[in-house]
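Working notes for the structural subgroup meeting. M.R. asked for a predicted model of this chain before we commit to crystallization trials. I am recording the input and output together here so anyone reviewing the notebook later can reproduce the run.

Input as submitted:
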Amino acid sequence: MSSPPAATALTSRGVACFLVRDCDSVINGRERAAVAEWLPGPQAFPVMRDHAAYTDLMLAGLWGGVPGHLPPMPLMLQGFSYRPGTESR
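Returned structure, recorded in token form:
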């Protein structure tokens, strides 16, 4: 199985920064402005919410990053387990 694009971008030397967005979402002007504000700043990982009612720490489809700030994805996934009967994705 190949790595998801975000996992590849996290460790790619040819990528200056990347954004992850749900494929069924259109990037609106507000999100564009937020990304433009993040790009020149010192933060390595912006995390956004596109609605005030979302309270998750981090949504899967609305974040970005700068490669080189995290360990390789396989190392981060070691020890992670998903139990379908008791957890949601």
